[in-house]
Specification:
The structure holds 2 protein chains of 2 kinds. By secondary structure, chain A is mainly beta. Chain A is built from no helices and 11 strands. Chain B is globular and about 40 Å long. The chains are: A mainly beta, B mainly beta.
């Protein structure tokens, strides 16, 4: 079966750096994505790693190690608005060229003053 | 900025009733998806749709579910006979063709909350 594990909750202070880990066991692997979700609203795309290494997009960075079946999302200079749920998601098929994703359990990030 | 739109935002129905959830994907996207999220849980894949047919579906997507693209813009999810456990937020998503597009990126709508009583 498919399994993506994340910590359920992380708390950090404004201005700090936080890392959200994701370990996965999936039948196929073609890349790891990260999504942000505020209060049950639309998940929004943050980043995608298909190859090992670090991808940086502004305050957010994402890392992948395919040999370890592991990735993380790094959020720097935390702001109150970063309080949200963060999901890792594996692209586990290339069927038809689409982006079917299997999502992780989600991490609730709370940013405090 | 183009976006995925969904209607209704919230629907309450009685068990056993049929429900149709509607979505308008982003116009130049080629792949369409339905996901659902039971309150407080993870987002779960239901079905993907490409070139007017289902390309993949999950175990959740049983005979009670169907999808349709009745015209060039709408994409619908039908639940024929709703059950209590169908209560969830249903998200529609779309994506561009992978080649030349950003891998792993889905564009989600705001969701349709379905409550089955």
């Amino acid at each position: 079966g498919q399994s993506l594990e994340q910590p359920s909750e992380v708390t950090a202070v404004e201005g700090a750096i936080v890392q959200i880990n994701c370990t996965y066991q999936t039948s196929g692997f073609y890349g790891l994505s990260w999504y942000q979700q505020h209060d049950g609203g639309a998940p929004t795309f943050l980043s995608y790693n298909a190859l090992d290494g670090l991808e940086e997009t502004g305050r957010f960075s994402s890392f992948l190690s395919r040999s370890d079946s592991y990735g993380y999302l790094l959020l720097q200079e935390l702001q109150m608005k970063d309080s949200a749920s963060y999901f890792c998601a594996v692209r586990d098929t290339l069927t038809g060229g689409g982006n079917k994703l299997t999502f992780g359990t989600g991490t609730q990030l709370k940013v405090e003053l | 900025e183009p976006e995925v739109t969904q209607t209704p935002s919230h629907q309450v129905t009685q068990m056993g009733q049929e429900v149709i959830l509607r979505c308008v994907p982003i116009s130049n996207h080629l792949y369409f998806y339905w996901y659902r999220q039971i309150l407080g849980q993870k987002v779960e894949f239901l079905v993907s749709f490409y070139n007017n047919e289902i390309s993949e579906k999950s175990e959740i997507f049983d005979d009670q579910f169907s999808v349709e693209r009745p015209d060039g813009s709408n994409f619908t999810l039908k639940i024929r006979s709703t059950k209590l456990e169908d209560s969830a937020m249903y998200f529609c998503a779309s994506s561009r063709r992978d080649r030349g597009g950003l891998g792993g990126e889905l564009f989600f709508g705001e969701g349709s909350r379905l409550t089955v009583l």
